[in-house]
Design brief:
This protein is mostly beta strands and 74 residues long. The chain is built from no helices and five strands. It starts with a strand and ends with a strand. This is Galactose oxidase.
């Protein structure tokens, strides 16, 4: 099994502006795995993960990022 780390970063407000004024990465802990699925732990402090649109990326054990998936945190 290949080790992976999950990173969650805010989606830029404007797709034409590559720099997001609220740019930060939040590393999420992988708590479970099954075929084609990962279970991630989110911070208990909701201030660390406010509602909004985010890009979810997985990094391989070698640090190679996946293509981002857009998701909404309510």
């Amino acid at each position: 099994m290949v080790a992976a780390r999950a990173a969650l970063a805010p989606q830029p407000d404007n797709t034409f502006v590559p720099a997001c004024r609220d740019a930060r990465a939040l590393w999420l802990r992988i708590t479970g795995r099954s075929t084609g699925k990962l279970k991630l732990a989110i911070p208990s402090n909701r201030a660390a993960l406010p509602p909004g649109m985010y890009m979810l990326m997985l990094n391989s054990a070698k640090g190679v990022p996946s293509t981002a998936k857009i998701l909404s945190i309510a």
